[in-house]
Amino acid sequence: MDFNYSAEDEAFRAELRAWLEANRRFAPRSANIMANEGEGDWEARVRWHKKLNEGGWVAVNWPKQYGGRGATVMQRLIFRQELSRLGLMEPFIGMGISLLGPTLMHWGTEDQKRRHLPEILKGNEIWCQGYSEPGSGSDLASLQTRAVDDGDDFVVNGQKVWTSMAQHADWIFLLTRTDPAAPKHKGISYLLVDMHSPGITVRPLVQITGGKGFNEVFFEDVRVPKKNIVGERNNGWQVAMTTLMFERGSGNSESAMDEVYELVELAKRLPRNGGIAWDDASVRQKVAEFAADATALKYTGYRQLTRELKGMPPGPEGSMMKLCSTELGLRIALFAMELLGPYSQLDLDAPFAIDAGKWSFRMLSARGPTIYAGTNQIQHNIIGERVLGLPKG
């Protein structure tokens, strides 16, 4: 990989940096610890999204014809770097920008693109993802939500679970079974469903963190116009895999180091044995191990980036990064609990909690990423069997 930025890249960086410096006051004051649960400063994040859109800085990698900047892979990296430099966040307000929008560009009708893409960019449509069901998590193709043909509509009945931000969503992209007699990977259709339709009920699932960003969503005789199908009827699995491809490519390989730096600052503020925790060589050694792992993740991400720049298909880096980054996040959270001692028992925003209790929140939520998007046990199997060629255990 050529680590030198082109003149166009540097011009992109300069324009972005100037805009961010001038408008950073409109951003939420801190990276929202509850962002992954769709809670906390939700309205502030929506406002920041809309402000970024005014400047043309939402979905920078979308093609210009759909309202993006047509940014290159490297410019997308620069965008993340510049936000991180100022301690700003890329506002996450649903799955529209990262998942549904790119999927519609590939599979959607012109009417669907005109109807939804501009509203997603403006932040006027919040989207959630209707994939997982009770009993259909890792084996997604076994889903049982039905869509029955009825004139100009489908009538949908069933249940989805672990639906992130359904409590805020205006729309859901939904996998349904339209041919129950077909093999399980066949007979599935991909529908766009208005969350305000009669017959939809959203119930929060309260997590150990106290967050309610995950939800159950129930569909009872919900009518969906047939024009809302994406791709061909009964060929929704192919569309769904396209969406998952965009999900796999949406990570940030450099974010782990940010947590390491935060851990350093924590250790420099916590008293220990008449000094501070950072004076302890064993603490510095542990943080150095985390920094080494975070650096390895960063350059593994660059390997993945290199493949993309060369037009190559995804390699094993995705599974490696998912596995290693989530394990690193868990180990950092565990060590922060050791450093905090009794303070680790204080909840988020509790009186006297250090750093407003964000470390204990992270500890409670750190196990989740090792489970969703393909459990780490599954990632071990993928790496062992498909990458290393090891026999099945």
How would you summarize what this structure contains?
The chain is an alpha+beta fold. It is built from eleven helices and ten strands.
Q: Identify the strand order in the major beta sheet.
A: 1-4-5-8
CATH topology of the largest domain: Butyryl-CoA Dehydrogenase, subunit A, domain 3
List SSEs in N-to-C order: HHHHHEEEEEEEEHHEEHHHH
What is the CATH class of the largest domain? Mainly Alpha
Shape descriptor? globular
Our Rg estimate from Cα atoms comes to: 22 Å
Major sheet, described briefly?
4 strands, mixed
Structural class: alpha+beta
Provide an overview of this structure:
This protein is an alpha+beta fold and 393 residues long. It has 3 domains: 7-93, Butyryl-Coa Dehydrogenase, subunit A, domain 1 (Orthogonal Bundle), CATH 1.10.540.10; 127-233, Beta Barrel (Butyryl-CoA Dehydrogenase, subunit A, domain 2), CATH 2.40.110; 251-387, Up-down Bundle (Butyryl-CoA Dehydrogenase, subunit A, domain 3), CATH 1.20.140.10. The chain is 42% helix and 14% strand. The protein contains 11 helices and 10 strands. The protein has helices at residues 7-23, 42-54, 73-85, 96-107, 110-122, 236-248, 255-267, 281-309, 317-340, 358-365, 376-387, and strands at 127-130, 146-150, 153-160, 171-177, 188-194, 200-205, 214-225, 229-230, 271-272, 275-276. The strands form 3 sheets. The protein has a 4-stranded mixed β-sheet. A hairpin with a 2-residue loop joins β9 (271-272) and β10. α1 (7-23) packs parallel to α3, α8 (281-309) packs antiparallel against α9 and α9 packs antiparallel against α11. The longest helix is centred in the last third of the chain and has 29 residues, at 281-309. The radius of gyration is 22 Å and the shape is globular. The relative contact order is 0.09. Residues 31-38 have low confidence and may be disordered.
